[in-house]
Each structure stands twice: as C-alpha cells, then as structure tokens.
Structures
1.
Amino acid sequence: MASEANDSTERVVIIGSGPAGWTAAIYAARANLSPLVLIGVPATDPAPVLPGGQLMLTTEVENYPGFPEGVTGPKMMADFQAQAERFGTRVVGEDVLSCDFSRRPFVLKTSEGREVRTRSVIIATGAVANWIGAPNELRLARSGGGVSACAVCDGALPIYRKKHLAVVGGGDTAMEEAAYLSKFASQVTVIHRRGELRASRTMQDRVRALPNVDFRWHSKVVDVLGADRIEGVLLEDARTGERSRLDVAGLFVAIGHSPATRFLAGSGVELDDKGYVMLRTRSSRTNIEGVFAAGDVADPTYRQAVTAAGMGCAAAIDCERWLAEHGVH
C-alpha cells in the first residue's frame, strides 16, 4: 500500500464534524496524519443539519466534563475545531455525495464535483433528530426556547425543573425520556397520536407507574405556542379533528433519529435495519478494511457528546494503527 502513495492521496479523511469528527481529527493530527475533515454544508431538508452536528442546536451543555458553568453547543464545537486545526487538521466545507470503497485508494465524490483519494476514512456524520414539523418547533429549538430532542441532554436544566413538560412519541425512547424527565418535572404529559404505545411492555409499565406522568391519546402536535419561550402546544384529536391547548414549559420530541448514512448507499459499508453503521465488536472498524466510524452515526443507544468524543478518539487510534500496519505513516 505504501508504494502506491502520491502527493494527491490523503492518509485519512474524516467525513463529518461534531464531537466524534473533531476528536478524531485532534488525535489523527497529533499522530502526524494531517487529516482532512469534510464538514459538509448546512441543509434544511428533510431536517436541519449544520456542520458541528446536533450540538449546533443546543444552547446549553451542562453534562460534558470540564465545563462546570456549562457551555453552548456552538461554542463547544468552535473550540473543538480550533483545537483540531491547531495541530494541522485541514477543513473543507463540502458534502460527500458517494464513496467508492471497492478500489484503493478509496475515492470520495464531493458536492463541489471533486474526487478525494484517501487511504482510510473515518465516518462521523452523526444522526439527525426526527422533528414533528410543527410551526415554531425548530425556531424555539434553535433559540433555547424550551423545545428539545434530548431529555438526557437538556431535561435537568433549571428552566425545566418543577415545570409541566410534554414528550411526543410512543416508543421506548419516548418512555425513557418521560421517565427521566419525571425526576425533575412537576408533571410530564406523553402525547401520542395513537391509542396505545409502541414501547415494550416493560417500559410501558415503568412509566405508567410514575405518579407525575399522564397521557394524551389520539393527539398530535400541530403547533408550538410561544414567542421567546414555549408556552404550550396546540393539539389535534386524530379521530375528530378537534383542537385543544396544553400549557407546558417544555416540549421533548422523541420520535426517533435518522443516521446520516444516505451517502453510503452502494458503498458496501454494512448498515443495520435503521441505517446505522455496524461496527466490529469493541472497535471502530466497519466491515471494510480501512473504513472506521464514530459517534451517533454508529450509536443508536447513547447519542451523547461525551460518548461520541470517546468513539472519535477510538476511531483515530484504530485508524492510525491500521495505517501503520500497512506501511503508511
């Protein structure tokens, strides 16, 4: 492999930013691999995506070690990027449209019509929360106005404590969010468009037993009310069309996430039935030698900044060792 190297071939390309991508870049750069990070471009369809990942929609991060007073998501990602660039990381604002892993070096086609050749790849494109699509929903999510897609990330913030909160969804994730929020909220209302939950019986029983959790059945959120902060939600009965208002101080959308893996179609990288990258046991390795993955794109379980950063570290170390085994330094 080393004999095929030329000046136009990268040693490692990191696709995506966010905690996983930037941590991978920091470690790869400090290993003198001169990583290239393709951070993507802002998009709004089908859901908002910004370089920097889901933290770009998070106003306060209080559960990441090292920030005793908290930090905004955009500030954290800017600092991650600055640290990566300090050690020689190169950053390009282009999307990867497709990957050819059938030949070596690999070839990545970008949104600017370029072909990037590389010995190895770290996939760190994350996952995007599925939103309801109601007016004002994303505006209040971006501004810190009381709409969130992650209770574990935001639910313990002072603005939600001892308040009436709502959770949208009916699966295990929604039940986990409701149970978590019940520790801080005065009341949690689960809003579900059907008359029964999709969650496992164990999770249903756990939440139904909580004294401060109730349910709004056959209901869907058609609008989020409030100017600077959420004041309530407008609900519509799925059977009759009748509308009603529910006053809440926070709305947590728990209808799943979509991993950003469409660009991997036809690449040969193994994905699970929900589209997440599948990893080899206790490593960041995919089924293709020289292709690694880190963060929410390969983690449907935790989806936290700190776990994503840890996975980014592991991916960079695995990648550096793999390159060294193949004579690339």
2.
Amino acid sequence: MTPYIRNRNCQCTRCRAHGLMGAAVLITLGVLFLMDSYHIIRFDQGLPALLLVIGCVLLVARTGSTEGHIQPGWMQGAAVQSSPQQPLATTTTSTAPPPPPSPQWASGADNPPSASVQDDSQVKP
C-alpha cells in the first residue's frame, strides 16, 4: 500500500477537499458579517459556525475517498526507468571529474540534491 500524497492535479475527493478550506472559511466569514450587519445574529455568537465549517472540511479532507487518486510525479501507464540518464552536453573548463549522475525521482515529494559544481551552459552566473 502506497502512502497518500496530495496532488493538485488529482480529481479524487480527498485531493479536491484540501483546496476548499480557504473558500469555505471566506464564505462563512462573509455570511457571518452579513448576518451581523442585518442584526440577525452577532458576529461573536456565530463563530462556532466557523469552527464547524473548518471541522467539516478537515473531516472530508482526511477521510474522503481516494478512488482514482494519482500520486504526484507519476505518469499513468509509464514505467519508472531504472538506469540514470546521462547529461546531453557539458562544458567544463576545470580538471575536476564531473559529478555522478542523479538518480531518477519517482515522486514529487523529494527535491533532488543541489550540485556543488554548476556546469550548465543554460544558467548564467
């Protein structure tokens, strides 16, 4: 069983619910301010409703269905390559050996380590 990692491009219920927190809080605050301005209910008495909305969104975000979930960095139907790729072209002026090739990264959760020697011709110092 693979661990769940949230993906912005996934359309499962659990991933979509993570993006609803800000909108739900903003709408709830707007309704509370509107009700306060029409003297229906005071704002401080309506704050428990805000906590209920936050709790409901958190509950859906943590227990929602992961059916059809796509892990970040994984491509549908493509196998992960096991051999590291060689760089296309490097222009080095020093006598130091080139750095070892970086491993293939299967998920977007980890960032590749930064190289101490930058010998990329596309990057301007």
